[in-house]
Amino acid sequence: MKAMAAMMSMPPPPPSSSSPLASQSLSVPSRQASNLPVLTIPGSHGWPLVGPISDRLDYFWFQGPDTFFRSRMEKHKSTVFRTNVPPSFPFFLRVNPKVIAVLDCNSFAHLFDMEVVEKKDVLVGDFMPSTSYTGDTRVCAYLDTEEPKHGQLKNFALDILKRGSKVWVEELQANLDVFFDTIESDISKNGSSSFLSHLQTFLFNFLSKSLVGADPALDPGVANSGPLSIDLWLGLQLLPTVPILAFQPLVEIFLHSYTYPFALVSGGYRKLYSFIEQHGKEVVQLGEKEFGLSKSDAIHNLIFTLGFNAYGGFSVFLPTLLGTIASDKTGLQARLRDEVRKVCGTSTGLRFDLVKDMELVNSVVYETLRLNPPVQLQYARARKDFQLTSHDSVFDVKKGELLCGYQPLAMRDGKVFEDPESFKPDRFVGKGKELLNYLFWSNGPQTGTPSETNKQCAAKDYVTLSASLIVAHMYRRYDSISGDAGSITAVEKAN
Ligand code: HEM
């Protein structure tokens, strides 16, 4: 009843995939009440140099991102305010740290409205890692929808997902079995399994085969070193933006003050390039022939999609999902197990269409993404002057200003999600599915459709369905598992 009441008072959802607007852009909730007050955006960027450095130290050291955004939201009594975000002074002189933070569902949704914002080179803010990390080319995620190449590359990504979908489910399950075999063997030897490296091996093998059509087993060097090479390549390019709260002030001095050269990881990157060139020929040629890409553009974009988008995204998301389920003490596992077995009935294998009927499993996946969005920050630059609407106010934004959405807070918006800080496994079941309009982990609502005209994650549905399939696979194999986001300590095999 309370949930229904909350829904009634909720802002109108962004248009769903069935809306004619959705094919053009993922538009924002309309400015629902024209009588909302137009206010000046609170907060300031502070004194030159002093403001940015003090905000940087708060963000990386004294507060951490969550307290950083939360405390300013409370201080300004507003979900929209001005602040600085790192990296900044002294060695990032060309990076402009000034942003407008947007922390409620309404204001956050402007980040998806390609009519009013552009997404050129703002994947991780005004700072952009050197293009030497991506073969001296600006890959899809850095392109704005108005750049023609974005359409070519986005359609290429959507197409390889569609073509790979036949092997996707098979590879996912085959590699999952290897993953769980390794965990069992660790538990029997050591009493527990710290599973991150096993998970990353599983992801690298499964994603190489299903996205790029390249089998790491054909190149033992890459099979062994691929996951670590990607970790280092990702870590090095993102280092200036990644919060590390331990070992301060050393981290500020040595890790957050300059960029590191691609040369440090170029060997591993070159191996990945040759691996895809040699073993992913079919997919590379598809990029050349059907999407008009040069061979090197196709390969650099495949490495980015495989390594940054897919492997990187799942490496953050899956430990949280496994940890949430494995550490539950409320009886959730028995409910998940019952649903999986009921829906599967006598069928031997799992399929996406079976998984779609598992309401609780899907809801647990969505709720995990809501409380722990794997990509916490999203940025977009005002394409023109426009008015930005929060739940209770309207603000004037000038062309060129950078919006910064911190998703963990937007996804705890109490005007949309009842009891927003709690993990509620059934939140998205039944009528709760309407809340999918406000689930933004993919840089767009879960009801949206990724396309060349927006910047929503190309694999929006593959990610959630794959996660549900992993949970379903687990409960066909086990009655229960115990552990947390870092390790599995016990598994009880299904009878
Ligand atoms: C858990 C896994 C994943 C997460 C959390 C994730 C998240 C995201 C997010 C937040 C964005 C938008 C970034 C921004 O512009 O601010 C994005 C973009 C993108 N993702 Fe994913 N992603 C995941 C998996 C994948 C996979 C498996 C693919 C494989 C095709 C993929 C392909 C892409 C592409 C191509 C873009 C760029 C879209 C564009 O430029 O229009 N992602 N992803």
From TrEMBL:
Write out the similarity annotation. Answer: Belongs to the cytochrome P450 family.
Region of interest (Disordered), ranges: 1-26
> Required cofactors, per record?
heme
What this protein is called in its record is Linolenate hydroperoxide lyase
The UniProt record gives the binding positions of heme as 457
Alphabetically, the GO molecular function entries are: heme binding; iron ion binding; lyase activity; monooxygenase activity; oxidoreductase activity, acting on paired donors, with incorporation or reduction of molecular oxygen
Write down the species. Answer: Hibiscus syriacus
- What keywords tag this UniProt record? Heme, Iron, Lyase, Metal-binding
Its BP terms in the Gene Ontology are: fatty acid metabolic process; sterol metabolic process
InterPro entries from the xrefs?
A: Cyt_P450, Cyt_P450_E_grp-IV, Cyt_P450_sf
Q: Which Gene3D superfamilies match?
A: Cytochrome P450
